[in-house]
Amino acid sequence: MDAAVCNRLHNDLRMTPDHAQSTLRDVARIAGVNVATASRALSSDRRGMVSPETAKRVDEAAAELGYRANPIARGLKTNRSFTIGVLVPDLTNPLYPPIVRGIDDALARVGYTPLTANTDNDLERERTSFEVLRARRVEGFVVASAFREHPLIDEALAEGVPLVLSLRRIDAGTAWTVCVDERAGIAQAVDHLVALGHREIAHIGGPVAEMSTAHERHIGFLASMAVAGLNGTQELVRFAAAFTIEDGRVACRELLESGARPTAITAGNDLIALGCSDAIAEIGLRCPEDVSIVGYNDMPLADRLAPPLTSVQIPHYELGVRSAEVLLDRIAGNGSIPRTELLAPQLVVRGSTRAI
Amino acid sequence: MDAAVCNRLHNDLRMTPDHAQSTLRDVARIAGVNVATASRALSSDRRGMVSPETAKRVDEAAAELGYRANPIARGLKTNRSFTIGVLVPDLTNPLYPPIVRGIDDALARVGYTPLTANTDNDLERERTSFEVLRARRVEGFVVASAFREHPLIDEALAEGVPLVLSLRRIDAGTAWTVCVDERAGIAQAVDHLVALGHREIAHIGGPVAEMSTAHERHIGFLASMAVAGLNGTQELVRFAAAFTIEDGRVACRELLESGARPTAITAGNDLIALGCSDAIAEIGLRCPEDVSIVGYNDMPLADRLAPPLTSVQIPHYELGVRSAEVLLDRIAGNGSIPRTELLAPQLVVRGSTRAI
DNA sequence: CTACGTTAAGCAAACGTTTGCACCACGACC
DNA sequence: GGTCGTGGTGCAAACGTTTGCTTAACGTAG
User: Fold this and answer.
1) Of A311, B33, B134, B352, which has the maximum CB count within 10 A?
2) Confidence of residue A11 (pLDDT cuts 50, 70, 90)
3) How many CB atoms neighbour CB A289 within 10 A?
4) Percentage of chain A surpassing pLDDT 90?
5) What phi, psi does B293 have (nearest 5°)?
6) A182-314, superfamily in CATH?
7) Which of A108, A134, A305 lies at the smallest CB-CB distance from B305?
């Protein structure tokens, strides 16, 4: 088969299915203009460079062919990808889907596409994902997997990678951040319990050494207790090794075995709250009759548990939306010094708390 | 400023930050070879074309510069993006994160990246997302948002877009599909209830007209009842308008108001099961003492409800993994006629079912 | 009537890869 | 000792855009 035949066949193949992506060259040919002119006509900000009538012809040609610009080619030339990397610990954890959803929606509005990766809280895995996403030329990152000390984030910051922390912060405070006013959240929980007459209030926190969320809630607990004039010292505080039911149970049990008999518990999150519930059941006490429990995050179905869990609701979705918006702003070149945005949580009172 | 100076400055600027992505040209220069040779040395399948010693030099140069190939440029040339579009109804629905996670993991293994979009079961929104993803040159789709009749999918199929349905099928059966053996799942539920001595077994299904999952579970219910020699006719079957607690409650209440008094209910999914639980409570009956209830999907915390919900567990994660694998196989050009893969569900017995 | 500014459009070079083809030694074969 | 492969390498043309520069056409002013 000679070259001409081969080419013809090749062209035929490419032309036959009407879904074959048409190119700017096709549009230009149909409109009878140069590809450069077509490019200008189709771009919003340089549309004024072509005569209205030509612009119209190009539009029609594009519409006829169902032309959609190839973002790959465009990206190669402009060095922009209109993609954002999203680093999340685990999509399977119900805490994160609403955040991701918020990011998705905010990005979609302006033509950006998120590239999401799960880190499993594993620094090595995270680094790999980060590199892969950078290789794909994402224009910035929303990071929801931060630890209080986080070398990767420090490096990225130093390199000037546009980056916004979501939900979890770093101690240094050197990054743009959108998170929850955890202290206010736990304060609402403590105030609620105090109003119900509780004085012996315990806190079963999360992994305070690693995660800002756990840490802030602990700090918030101590502060709120002090403000209420109550004893918020070590004997009523324990920490779960992770935000899980089992670790919560273990930590609570440890507290109970120390002889402490709190009438109420503020938990680091809802899973820890469930663990606490198990632990007090194990020693024959009941919630809420003997011990009130307040969770954190207000996860799905928290209202259907037995008893329905009083919990601090946080604005997951808005957290995602704001994170994306702040990042886009940064990419647009606005803002100079890092800013931290605190979103307000809201206590939801249910059956797991009761007056003493 | 003359051109030479300008160019030099430009180069300096590009070189200064050591995170500036280095290009194949840089690698080639350092290794003292042509960029074509460098390209070949770095590609696994054409590495044999260059001498081992040259290949080594190129490797070293690449390592030194921390070179990572630009997938955008590569994609432009090869017409491949190494991305897959994932269409999911709503990430916020706990059913989908494990599926997406399975897809992510399976794709990551072979260097692909998923581009995920939420459809909200809205056909127009879905079409937009589909177009956006196609414009981004995804190489194929995993679609978890299928309706039994689905014009968009039919069109995509007709156009030859590589596409795999996940979880939800289309009636036509013309698409490659990875889903759950719903009939077997509901059969396990019915058999379990029958073994407990139940004879009056109701089914509160989902939106059977639109979704294959709801439809198959209904069909499965009828078949299982027939096999057990029981009456599975209309008077004990109702359908919720959607897979929600509220719609489940309404449908169940309707059944009860018709005078029916089943001793057991198989629900279309866990949320409907919760609605049923509410409905029977409203008329003063209790679960499981008066009515046993079996859910479907075994959603997170189903084991912590009151009573813990007996439910049919489906392999979400594996569903995602297999969907991705099948799609990759298709893209690689393997397989010709559409195949449907059925993954096995597994009943998990808990407190919401009891012997009569 | 020439010169000049302005507007619209085209030309061509990039962006960072991949890949068909040409080239060049070099050893082997007739 | 020419002629052939053959293995290694380089050259240059793509891929589909964007964009700086140039050209063409057309008024308008001097």
Assistant:
1) A311
2) very low
3) 9
4) 87
5) -135, 135
6) Response regulator (3.40.50.2300)
7) A305
Contact B324, B142 (CB under 8 A): yes
* A51 CB neighbours strand C below 7 A: yes
Contacts with B21 from chain A: Cβ below 8 Å: 137
Place of tokens 């105090």: A194
Q: What share of chain A is helix, strand, coil (3-state, %, to 5)?
A: 45, 15, 40
Which CATH number is correct for A3-69, 1.10.1060, 1.10.150, 1.10.287, 1.10.260?
A: 1.10.260
Give the pLDDT score at B20.
63
A36 touches strand C (CB under 7 A): yes
Q: What is the CA radius of gyration of chain A?
A: 27
Nucleotide closest to A76 measured between CA and C1': C15
DSSP secondary structure, B149-217, as one string:
S-HHHHHHHHHT--EEEESS--TT--SEEEEE-HHHHHHHHHHHHHHTT---EEEEE--TTT-HHHHHH
3-state secondary structure of B117: strand
Are A17 and B159 in contact (CB < 8 Å)? yes
Domain ranges of chain B: 3-69, 79-180+316-344, 182-314
CA distance B243 to B338: 29
Give mean pLDDT, residues B6-16: 31
Q: How many CA atoms lie within 13 A of A62 on its CB side?
A: 20
pTM over 0.85: yes
Measured CA to C1', the nucleotide nearest B37 is: D9
Return the amino acid letter for A250.
V
- Residues B106, B321 contacting (CB under 8 angstroms): yes
pLDDT confidence tier of residue A20, bands split at 50, 70 and 90: low
